Amino acid sequence: MKFSAVLVFLSLFISSVSAQIFPGLSSTRKIKLFSVKADKNNLTASGLSAGAFMAHQLHIAYSKRFSGVGIIAGGQYYCAEGEVDIATQHCMKGTSFVDHQTAIEHARREFQNNRIDSLRNLRNDKVFLFSGKNDFGVSKETMKELEKMYRYFLPSANIKTEFSHIAGHGFPTLNYGNDCTSQSYFNTPWILNCNYDAAGIILNFLYEGLHEPAEPKRENLIAFDQNEFITNNSSMGTMGHVYIPSSCRTNRCKIHIVLHGCDQDPMSVGDKFVNYAGYNRHAEANNIIILYPAAQKSYWDPQNPIGCFDWWGYTGPNYHVKDSVQMKAIMEMVDRLGE
User: Fold this and answer.
1) Residue predicted with more confidence, 97 or 125
2) Does the reported pTM lie above 0.90?
3) What strand order describes the sheet that includes 239-243?
4) pLDDT score of 16
5) CB-based burial of residue 27 (10 Å sphere; 0-12 exposed, 13-18 middle, 19+ buried)?
6) Is residue 169 flagged as an active site residue?
7) What is the mean pLDDT of the chain?
8) One of 135, 197, 263, 310 is an active-site residue; which one?
9) Is the distance from CB of 185 to CB of 153 less than 8 angstroms?
10) What backbone torsions phi and psi does residue 44 show, to the nearest 5 degrees?
11) Residue 70: pLDDT above 90?
């Protein structure tokens, strides 16, 4: 990773010079992730920023197992082409260097090489795309290229966009977080008080006929040990979270994967994202398991100084295909829930 590129990432996202460890996090009890016989083959995912890029990568690479995705400030497949400078200078800025046709050709080539699932699996899926008008982190042009890519595979009725909201860079919620339009480089925990329930809007679009949200139960949010799923040099954290609604202990439930953004991992923001993004209240009322995998900050081998999920190749050249160490880990977590 070039030093200049590291500075770009730090200037865009890092919330403080030193990492903030929130009280109680280090003592959080982690358990072994267990099976609840969930539906592991009708998956959906969503994410913010680096997590949005990762959600899209999962959707493309494992299209056979996914039925929809929600993306907040993300971009198209293999946008960075394995280079951090392209990621920061083109993908995030939305220049004409990166276009949807190039992304489509990359995906086709990987399918022909048997490294991802068939792109025909996308044709009945649903996609929600969100880009705030004040988002300084990821350009709306990048999101528009992603929309063009999905429109190539999906009917228009299966794509919903919101590109006119006043939000800055962060995860929009009904009533929790920092100022909605904030453009601060120090905006931890990257949750925005926008009078906009992004989590609920995503879930209601991906799943039809949802009930009104219910009060989530604290005991249903579980911290689990990720160590058994990760490998060295993967920059995945030791702790993930999963919200398992009460009814899902006895009923077969669907799984929605939620992926945090840069500088939004548990060691940076504690349990703020998993508690306040807004997913759990909808999950409790609608029998949806919410899986929150976690990346972590690493400064050498690999270089991931602000805890992003890998969408530019810091874990190696296979970061965007099924052999990706991070995507394999996430899918193994899903498989455990569905055993």
Assistant:
1) 125
2) yes
3) 159-162, 126-130, 66-72, 39-48, 254-259, 288-292, 239-243, 221-225
4) 35
5) exposed
6) yes
7) 91
8) 135
9) no
10) -130, 165
11) yes
Question: CB under 8 Å to 81, separation ≥6 — which residues?
Answer: 106
Q: Are 263 and 306 in contact (CB under 8 A)?
A: yes
Q: pLDDT digit string (tens) for 200-209?
A: 999 999 998 9
In the residue annotation, 15 being an active-site residue is answered as no
User: Do the Cβ atoms of 134 and 168 come closer than 8 Å?
Assistant: yes
Q: What is d(CA 248, CA 289) in angstroms, rounded to the nearest whole number?
A: 8
Active-site residue, selected from the candidate residues 49, 67, 182, 268 = 49
Q: How confident is the model at residue 30 (pLDDT cuts 50, 70, 90)?
A: confident
Q: Rounded to whole angstroms, how far apart are CA atoms 311 and 81?
A: 9
- Percent of the chain at pLDDT exceeding 70: 91
**Torsion angle in degrees (nearest 10) through CA of 142, 145, 150, 151:** 140
Q: Which residues pair with 259 in a beta bridge?
A: 47
Residue 133 CA, distance from chain mean position = 20
Once rounded to an integer, what is the mean pLDDT over residues 73-86?
A: 94
Phi, psi angles (nearest 5°) of residue 102? -65, -45
Residues 6+ apart with CB under 8 A from 105: none
Q: Which of helix, strand or coil describes residue 260?
A: coil
Q: What secondary structure letter does DSSP report for 236?
A: B
Sequence ranges of the domains in the chain: 3-338
Structure tokens at 29: 């009890």
Please give the structure tokens belonging to residue 84.
Answer: 């951090």
- Cα→Cα distances 44→105, 134, 162, 281, Å: 24, 27, 19, 17
Q: How would residue 14 be classed by pLDDT, with cut points 50, 70 and 90?
A: very low
More confident residue, 24 or 267: 267
Strands 159-162 and 126-130 come out as parallel
**How many Å apart are CA 164 and CA 98, to the nearest integer?**
23
Q: Which of these is catalytic: 100, 165, 169, 256?
A: 169
Give the whole-angstrom CA distance, residue 226 versus residue 242.
11
